[in-house]
Design goal:
With 247 residues, the chain is α/β, with parallel strands linked by helices. It contains 10 helices and 8 strands. The termini are close together. 42% of the residues are buried. Bound molecules: phosphoenolpyruvate.
Length: 247
């Protein structure tokens, strides 16, 4: 199965000009390696202009769960679909712990994405190395996916992203491929027990770079990677796409 590489630019870069330059390079990489399923998630404000360069690889970093109405400051999935956005990150730890989004909110957003036929990328993972990973994953998955049919759950791209491993966290360090695989199997087991679904590969995110990407992604149960910091370094990101295309 083709591996997925999801670039999460977060609140970067600062100007449209820089965004266009980064996007153009990354799209060239995506087009050069069509066996990698590349999705680039820029800040909302750049999406309309970037869609003019390419609208086949666009993702969003968040959405609101209603289609329209009195929701000051929010953006709906329907608005984003106008520009070709076909994926959306939901439940990133920046949203969970900086903004304070609950699992109930995440569940509403996942349902909104599925209703709109946009693929949700659900990020789950423990906050600190000391946390009980199994317990955290079970709590997150049972609420985040509540009320979804098996068919709907199979449309959600689940990413294991331990918060302590994200490159901008204090003392961040990538997880080990072995422990990632253990977490991926925990996620598959939880979904099998709670939802009676044989869920496919799970993505990994957390300090993935050109040096470690193969070790994380080579196993068939790891379906791809979510890449933050390295997705802002265009040469490195393009190199990652090349490496992944050869796995
Ligand atoms: C992220 O925040 O989604 C992420 C994976 O970041 P980084 O690759 O920088 O650890």
């Amino acid at each position: 199965m083709d591996k997925k590489i999801i670039a999460n630019w977060k609140m970067n870069p600062q100007t449209l000009e820089e965004a266009k330059e980064l996007f153009s390079a990354e799209i060239a990489g995506a087009l050069a390696h069509p066996n990698v399923n590349t999705v680039i998630c820029p800040p909302f404000v750049f999406i309309e202009e970037l869609a003019k360069i390419d609208n086949k690889h666009l993702g969003a970093q968040d959405i609101f769960w209603e289609e329209r109405g009195a929701f000051t400051g929010e953006i709906s999935i329907e608005m984003l679909k106008n520009f070709g956005v076909a994926h959306v990150l939901i439940g990133h730890s920046d949203r969970r712990y900086v903004v304070g989004e609950s699992d109930e909110v995440i569940n509403k957003k996942i349902k909104a994405a599925i209703r709109a036929d946009v693929a949700p990328i659900l990020l789950v993972g423990e906050r600190s190395r000391e946390d009980d990973k199994g317990k955290v994953l079970e709590q997150q998955l049972s609420v985040d996916l509540a009320g979804l049919s098996k068919e709907e759950i199979s449309k959600v791209l689940i990413a294991y992203e331990p918060v302590w491993a994200i490159s901008t966290s204090d003392n961040a360090e990538a997880d080990t491929p072995k422990k990632t695989l253990e977490a991926v199997r925990m996620i598959k087991k939880i979904i099998s027990e709670k939802f009676q679904l044989d869920y496919g590969p799970v993505l990994y995110g957390g300090s993935v770079n050109e040096n470690n990407v193969v070790d994380f992604l080579k196993h068939e149960d790891v379906g791809g990677g979510v890449i933050g910091g390295a997705s802002l370094r265009k040469e490195e990101f393009m190199h990652i796409l090349k490496i992944v295309s050869e796995i």
